[in-house]
Amino acid sequence: MAVWLEQAGDDFEARFAAFLTTKREVSEDVNATVKAIIDDVRARGDAALAEYSLKFDGLDFATTSMRVTQAEIDAAFASVSPELIDALRLAAERIERHHARQMPKDDIYEDAIGVGLGSRWTAIDAVGLYVPGGTASYPSSVLMNAVPARVAGVPRVVMVVPAQGGAINPTVLAAAKIGGVTEIYRIGGAQAVAALAYGTETIAPVAKIVGPGNAYVAAAKRQVFGTVGIDMIAGPSEVLVIADKDNNPDWIAADLLAQAEHDRGAQSILITDDAAFARSVETAVERQLNTLTRAETAAASWQDFGALIIVPDLNAAVPLANRIAAEHLELAVADPDALMAGIRNAGAIFIGRHTPEVIGDYVGGSNHVLPTARSARFSSGLSVLDFVKRTSILRLGPEQLKQLAPAAIALATSEGLDAHARSVAIRLNLED
Amino acid sequence: MAVWLEQAGDDFEARFAAFLTTKREVSEDVNATVKAIIDDVRARGDAALAEYSLKFDGLDFATTSMRVTQAEIDAAFASVSPELIDALRLAAERIERHHARQMPKDDIYEDAIGVGLGSRWTAIDAVGLYVPGGTASYPSSVLMNAVPARVAGVPRVVMVVPAQGGAINPTVLAAAKIGGVTEIYRIGGAQAVAALAYGTETIAPVAKIVGPGNAYVAAAKRQVFGTVGIDMIAGPSEVLVIADKDNNPDWIAADLLAQAEHDRGAQSILITDDAAFARSVETAVERQLNTLTRAETAAASWQDFGALIIVPDLNAAVPLANRIAAEHLELAVADPDALMAGIRNAGAIFIGRHTPEVIGDYVGGSNHVLPTARSARFSSGLSVLDFVKRTSILRLGPEQLKQLAPAAIALATSEGLDAHARSVAIRLNLED
């Protein structure tokens, strides 16, 4: 099933390097289709949205409103079991408390020569949140995107969600209510992204669009980038578990399968220093696989992209983990802190035997939107920082200008920029 | 010359909205050419680089080394005037001191129920810095990109710069030395971006690429995005000056021209409450224009994209400024703080009559790489944050897992993810 790699083997480096660059996604080229849809929504606004919704979602805006009403949201909320509402509330509260600590502070100060400098943070004015329809419509993702926006102070959080025949998963609407979403429209696909970016008669434009989606949504986000901001384009999920032999193989197998069941392109990797333990985990994976509703997806992921890597000792796992730069990294070992000190590249680290990654998906408080496909080498998970922006501040008086002017003029002159030099020089003889 | 807009006029809103969406760049479609170059560098490495450098830069790597040697860097440094070296050093020191304050702090804590949570920041392992050749080769930009990377703790900062016939601007090399660049290669264009992203025999790959470049470089950065991180793709520069009538029109004209001389697509806007003052500034711009080395560029920018906007009172400038979301905003008014409180969207704010934007280009200490083309609505200037990434940390013991498990299982079950639910549930009956 999964690939088996032993670091002691001769060809390990070559096989590991090849494993690292295995593509797990076929990127469909839908750019031309998407461009036509975006152009159409820009040109015709609501009328275009109505046509696409009729065509793709079987939804007639002549009889169903594009905007989901407060009464609909409240009714959906009331239809969700109290147990699930409590779970959503617990998750939202924990996400809110953790993300509140991420809010950056303004830093306005005067330096030694009296120059005023600073960084001032403000919330983005309006954010769009794309929520996929069907089975990929996850209430937990609504919370993970909406709550940090609310914490950042974004006044408008606009959710779009495609609604086949008008129906939206009531738990998604309940999550939107709990997460502080301020407007919801039942539109999806590239047309929804276009509406958020450019606005229509009904939908005022936003300044940034976040949230996962299919190939059309991802292509649309790339195309509107610049007009609005976008979050990362997430790839299939992945977990790396570093485990010693003292783990219950069934626990580790369950963790590997929790990734694999997401998507055929998901990836689950175990690194251990004990080949017998790896075999036990492999056996447990195969046994548990059969019991899953999404067995077919999980089996495909495990077969195509799963890996069991045997290292001579656990310290050797650290440089491999840094090269893999996993979205999720579990450290199920006796002394996780010793390993953690050496980890540089990981979206999130789950420490010890009682921190399955799944806790982070729902109720840990940290964000489950994390960098995939080795991008943890250069990027971070979603946070409050994604919903704010920083303005630099500079303030000089005549004295400070006099002190800094010669250097500025020298640099401007060396760069051949006369007007730059003059803009400073002209102020040196006149003070008010 | 520049457009004249009076808010008191009937058609102001329509004209202002049109003005806001004026495109200032023709984006050349070079994607196919760039893709071929990138594929070639991936396939053939150094050999491909050598061919492109011979073809585009007239540079033969058989006789000139691709890597710029330390002796060459030292010789370049020695050839630059002491006055200019001092200016570079002053700039670098001020940039370093300001950016050091931006370094985010780790936040590792335990919450009320004993769950360990945290954010840990680490520097990116290696960063590539693209520096354009020819007249767009600005030593100040080398400092603005390299110093924050050094402050962040990035161990490898790899500069690439095209060198027509082998020559590199000595001031650029001096800035690289002062800014802490660790490797320099005389390559440019899409091929240099490909080499940084994928590596060659000579150049080890980096994890992120920053710095400005022409259409080929911009397209290459977009194409390698995902394999590596990239910074924003900067558009033409822009300044918005909000000024009252008590300014010297010549000072304000010089500031407007300092933007205009950058690029034919640059934009300079004045908002004032005094039409006579605006006329005086316009006259001063026309007078100063003739004296500039780059008069042709500045004149084209001012004619095509310059604007003078007259508002009934200065408070009315604030909402317009937020819609323009300028890269640079000067507040040359008697009470700048009153206006500043209302500004939400701006890359950088320059406060008062003695803070020309040019100071921020060179020696203010803040970064001159700032969001253009209204992207200050959703993004920020370059900072130390662009050179670090955050890893989330989660740590539960058996007790914490027991407390959070029911909600996690309820949410996983509602999302139809069996293995997610099992990964938590399986740990509830066994504790070690």
TrEMBL record, chains A, B:
One GO CC term, this protein: cytosol
Key words of the record: Amino-acid biosynthesis, Histidine biosynthesis, Metal-binding, NAD, Oxidoreductase, Zinc
Enzyme class, first EC level, given as a word: oxidoreductase
Free-text cofactor note: Binds 1 zinc ion per subunit.
Binding residues annotated for substrate, in chain numbering: S237, Q259, H262, H328, D361, E415, H420
Binding of Zn(2+), residues: Q259, H262, D361, H420
GO biological process: L-histidine biosynthetic process
Pathway: Amino-acid biosynthesis; L-histidine biosynthesis; L-histidine from 5-phospho-alpha-D-ribose 1-diphosphate: step 9/9
Enzyme Commission number: 1.1.1.23
Stored SUPFAM superfamilies: ALDH-like
The organism's place on the tree of life at top rank: Bacteria
GO molecular function: histidinol dehydrogenase activity; NAD binding; zinc ion binding
Xref: CDD domains: Histidinol_dh
Annotated Pfam families: Histidinol_dh (PF00815)
Reactions mediated catalytically: L-histidinol + 2 NAD(+) + H2O = L-histidine + 2 NADH + 3 H(+)
Residues annotated as catalytic: E327 (proton acceptor), H328 (proton acceptor)
Binding site for NAD(+): Y130, Q191, N214
Essential cofactor(s): Zn(2+)
Claim: Oxidoreductase is one of the keywords in the record: yes
Family statement drawn from the similarity comment of this UniProt entry: Belongs to the histidinol dehydrogenase family.
Function: Catalyzes the sequential NAD-dependent oxidations of L-histidinol to L-histidinaldehyde and then to L-histidine.
Name of the protein in its database record: Histidinol dehydrogenase
Source organism (scientific name): Allorhizobium taibaishanense
